[in-house]
Design a protein that fits this description.
eight-stranded mixed β-sheet; alpha/beta; two-stranded antiparallel ribbon
Length: 407
């Protein structure tokens, strides 16, 4: 049972009564008459062969209020794309699979690359960006939810609760972030959020002056959640990072583009588990190590745009402040785990903190050496300005792939 406390400056919508899914879906069906709804699923082909995505599809088949499901498919050959079309063909809702590695979409990408208007890095951010472009092109949904395809504890209530705040015509929210407790297998998960993001934000408050943005970021209970929802008009001017800073970058864009009362977060699941990344202590280009560097740089870049000046000395101070705060959090979470009968490995937790502390310093140095780095994808309004027919072409390419290969 959640509490009803409103922490920070972002509205929190709790799960106070375990309202029955049928009631939620009844409301959503009514909302859909005025505000059609869609779902965006960024996926790797390998996830079609895992345990999570087949279960997600089974649940989605029974969802009555969706007008459209858009699946972004990465790392797929022609044979695998054909398989994906069959895999998703059981969905009763209108749906399309973006074959990001297919010749039609690659040709569009090459043209955008030549103009400097496409994501440079492969990955989830690029996948999501093209899916958002297709949603703008199709025009079938006004409220859209996005969630990952590796959620092994998925059920339809997660989607219903996630999209409800932006689908309800009586609410004024443009964006909603999902949150949940990262507990699975008898232990606490979510190390990057618990031991990097929150302690780093608290440490930044002691080092820099821009507390308005930091207070905003500190209001989110799970800032790295890959589950969020939004109104379609959000997509036009959204600039998202193409690296592991995606979630932090999206929250930063919402802070830049909207007043706080147009944003909220919602409790979407009592139990949540998905694919876990390795810590990668010896490789800053992989796993949680790369993730921590990308996230730290994303925060530094945002604060720089707010007028914060960084130096090697300020990053040393930040590292020391972070390290002390993070170690205190280890103690806090150890006690929380003990109260709830959960396993807790202090050595692994402190090992993570030590790596994150080093990576904060390294991320700071990378930022100082390359302050002009811009990993953000262009907004779709800019792309449309350069190529006025881009939405028609993107829509036609996806349709042509579907018609050619779904037979």
């Amino acid at each position: 049972m959640a509490d009803f406390y409103q922490n920070g400056i972002i509205t929190t919508l709790h799960n106070l009564t375990d309202r029955h899914l049928a009631d939620l879906e009844s409301d959503l069906l009514q909302f859909s008459k005025q505000r059609p709804m869609g779902l965006l699923l960024p996926s790797l082909f390998s996830e079609l062969e895992g345990e999570a995505l087949p279960n997600i599809v089974q649940h989605l088949k029974a969802v009555p209020y969706l007008s459209e499901i858009v699946i972004g498919l990465d790392r797929a050959s022609e044979e695998q794309y054909r398989h994906a079309l069959k895999f998703f063909s059981t969905l009763p809702q209108h749906h399309r699979v973006l074959w990001n590695d297919g010749p039609r979409l690659k040709a569009i990408d090459a043209e955008l690359q030549a103009l400097g208007l496409a994501p440079r890095e492969m990955g989830k951010g690029r996948n999501v960006w093209y899916c958002m472009g297709y949603i703008l092109a199709s025009g079938k949904a006004e409220s859209i939810a996005l969630h990952d395809c590796d959620i092994v504890t998925y059920n339809s209530e997660l989607l219903a609760r996630l999209i409800y705040p932006v689908a309800n015509p009586m609410f004024n929210y443009e964006f909603c972030k999902g949150y949940y407790a990262r507990v699975a297998g008898g232990k606490l998960n979510g190390r990057v959020s618990r031991l990097l993001v929150t302690p780093l934000i608290r440490a930044l408050k002691s080092v820099v002056d821009n507390h308005q943005y930091l207070d905003y970021m500190d209001s989110f209970r799970y800032p790295l959640a890959g589950e969020f929802s939004f109104r379609r008009d959000v997509l036009t001017d959204l600039r998202i990072p193409s690296d592991w800073g995606l979630e932090i970058g999206v929250l930063s864009e919402m802070h830049r583009n909207y007043a706080n009362n147009r944003l909220c977060q919602v409790d979407v699941a009592d139990v949540y588990d998905h694919k876990h990344q390795e810590l990668s202590l010896d490789d800053q280009q992989a796993g949680l190590s790369k993730m921590s560097i990308d996230i730290a740089k994303s925060l530094f870049r945002k604060l720089a745009t707010k007028g914060t000046t960084f130096s090697t000395e300020s990053f040393r101070t930040l590292k020391a402040s972070y390290y002390r705060i993070a170690l205190d959090f280890v103690e806090t979470y150890r006690n929380d785990a003990a109260m709830n009968g959960l396993k807790f490995d202090i050595h692994q937790e402190e090992e993570s903190v030590e790596m994150f502390a080093k990576n904060i310093m390294d991320a700071g140095q990378m930022f100082l050496e390359n302050p002009m780095e811009t990993p953000f994808t262009p907004s779709w309004s800019r792309v449309q300005s350069a190529l006025p027919d881009i939405f028609e072409r993107l829509y036609e390419a996806v349709e042509a792939d579907y018609q050619e290969f779904s037979a």
